[in-house]
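During the second half of the funding period, the structural biology subgroup turned its attention to how the target accommodates small molecules. The most pressing case was cobalamin, which had performed well in the primary screen but for which no bound structure existed. We therefore specified the complex as follows and requested a full 3D prediction, including the ligand pose.
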Amino acid sequence: MGMKTLGLDGVADFFSSDPDVTFFHPPSIYDFRERTEVIGPISDVIPSSPVFEMYPIGLTSIADTLERNGYNAQIVNLAHEMLVDQEFDAEMEIAQSEARIFGVDLHWLPHAHGAIEIARLIKKHHPNAPVMFGGLSSTYFHEDLIEYPSVDYVVRGDSTEKPVADLVDAIEGNGDLADVPNLTYQADGETVVNPLTYLPEALDESSIPSYTYAVKSVFKYGSIRKVLPHRGWLDKPITMLLTSRGCRHACSFCGGADSYGDVHGRTGPAFRSPEKLIEDIRTIHSFSEGPIFVVHDLRMGGWDYATEFFDRLAEESIPNEFIFELFGPASEDYFQMIDEAVPKYSLELSPESHVEEVRKEMGKFAVSNEAIENTMQAALDNGCQNIDLFYMVGLPEQTYEDAVGCVEYAEHLLEDIDDERILPFVAPYAPFLDPGSPAFENAEQYGFSVHADSLEDYRQLLLEPSWKRMLSYETDHLSRDDIADATYEAARGMSKLKYEHGLLEEETYQTMVDRIDTSEELVSRVDEVYENTPDDHRDAALESLFEEYSEFEDFGENSIAGADELWWPSEGFRNGIALARLGAKLLAKDLKQRYTTGRSPLK
Ligand code: B12
């Protein structure tokens, strides 16, 4: 591509915020607004709704890298738009897009239905526009994906900032597809799989995630809704720090760890330096006083890595609350270090099971309950405001009694350790067993049976009318029915326990019990329809069944966790002025960068 000098039209080009590349984030199920489903508790312990409207944080760094290379790259969170605006026309948004190249994320497998439907619509309205896919699940299923007529490229791996920029250059005739790392595509009807060679050893090359891109894009592309991470974010602006891509732990049910090695070619985590993490925190604080979630246990980078992070953070006096994860027991001195570095902090602890044997089988918190309890006590004695404790139903070697037994154990914790700052939750491992996880790859060995194989199988599972029927797995001890029954029984018990210990308001508790009852009833009535209705009458029968429950809006979410239970009160979003000031500064910086590089967008 000849370097096009940036005369006046360059400036006009620059200010016309027409995207060259647009990344669409799909809902898990494309037409979720027209469908009648009870997908209830599958997302109750994360900020998103059951249509999983949160996009991969890496889209911000991919878009930022493209913008630094002179392209206009926009993120459009279609799932969020469709969720918050019943009238929002996703097809119209796609049809009216000015972009010439499109990206769709299939990072989380539960997006398998929406992602392909969005790609189809892109091809319908932009038949000559190339469509690229990417994300952890795209990488796992790249050979399935490339067979879909609406998919032209799959950029594989857990890091694709540079490969995507190389791909866009190549599409623009400034490079050869054969030289684009991590790329899967088709040539002469043959699938070509370029080697997965782009695998950065550290995450300091670009801003990962890029909050500066997100803020700038609000002004550049004139919409804050399109780039919001999930519903309600403006009221509850939680942000995250990504300390690493990859993981040192090999929990049997997690598509993290081993799959990074086997699927993404990553033998060890790539870390973002404490220095860069502090820069991210400064950027976040410039527009938000909301909580900052630090993804992964900082000690995965080693004690020195964690110490350097906290030493640097202590210099910053950032008022935001920090939320830290622990992947194993920790001692007093670790919490003392945290307590000295931040004004307030909370912990996310996911032992997943209170049964030591189950944890050993899982390869997570394979220590005694005493060790975990000592860790919690040490944290609470050193300034920890709150410990969210997560248990899960659907684990290897977990019996029904094990699954529901977490309530009784949680009662012991509230009575013997602390009943104000420990908040226990129990949720189903749903909807899918993570592809690439040890249990998925060695199902028999781990006592799992997986009911889906191809990407298309998962797309069909997502169209099942209840979350139970959507489950892609069963275990030797827990059938789908058991997983659903144990989830409802444990969730009912856990809510009652929290209510009795004053951790839940009367109204929230009552709402949760009503929703658990209705959700459970609806799930079993869906089964009755399948048992008693001939196939050709089923859809009509389901339609009228859901009619009966029309007041049961929102797919039955917030049944196992109250709407506000997993929220950290804060001053939240600083204010529009702070955002506008930051946005203007970033746009000016972008203009200067474009003028100096003389790079012009794709026109
Ligand atoms: C942090 C995290 C979250 C955060 C959100 C993070 C975010 N917004 O990105 C929260 C807690 C909200 C979350 C929620 C969920 N998560 Co999660 N999450 C993780 C975790 C711990 C780290 C992810 C990470 O390291 N990302 C960094 C890298 C890998 O991704 P990235 O930078 O965003 O994207 C890069 C590449 O993937 C690629 N890419 C991504 N998208 C695209 C798109 C295009 C077009 C291209 C070209 C490239 C591309 O390029 C990017 C940049 O280079 C992993 C476990 C692990 N260790 O990986 C689980 C994991 C990814 N989550 C998982 C699951 C199942 C979920 C949930 C569905 C769970 C549930 N039932 O609620 C929800 C879905 C939420 C939603 N989408 O609305 C599974 C996914 C398994 C699978 N293959 O489907 C994992 C592997 C493990 C697990 N069981 O938790 N998650």
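Two results from this model are relevant to the next phase. Residues 9 and 553 are 50 Å apart (CA to CA). The longest strand covers residues 384-393.
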